[in-house]
Specification:
Number of helices: 5
Number of strands: 5
Helix content: 25-40%
Strand content: 15-25%
Shape: flat
């Protein structure tokens, strides 16, 4: 299934102990690398509950993607567990995901893009 796509956009996802999502960083670090590009967007005020902290879960996933050599970026906005920030930056998300260059078809470097999106006004 993973060979069927090349771009992943994750808006306020919960990579915590819900249905095993907290195990994804380990799986990424210990699996064969695929030619995909990944953008994680999360709000600094996202959920922190008995399942875990969503910001830390996204940071762990971003670290695993970086460790495994993926073309990826983590964008930390100021929002909550909603898609408001993602909606405001969606055109730039598409430009980054489907531009030229990079392993999966987007323009490097992702860190400059992440800095731009994090500063977007809501």
């Amino acid at each position: 299934m993973a060979d069927a796509f090349g771009c992943v956009v994750s808006h306020c996802a919960s990579y915590v102990n819900i249905r095993g999502a907290h195990q994804l960083p380990w799986a990424i670090r210990n699996s064969e690398r695929r030619a995909i590009r990944v953008l994680l967007l999360i709000g600094s005020n996202d959920n922190d509950n008995d399942h875990g902290n969503n910001v830390l879960g996204n940071e762990q996933l971003a670290a695993a993607l970086d460790y495994a050599g993926y073309d990826s970026a983590l964008v930390l906005g100021e929002g909550y567990h909603n898609r408001v920030h993602a909606g405001h930056v969606f055109p730039d998300t598409l430009r980054w995901m489907f531009g030229s260059g990079g392993d999966a078809g987007g323009p490097p470097p992702p860190n400059e893009f992440a800095s731009f999106l994090a500063g977007a006004k809501l």
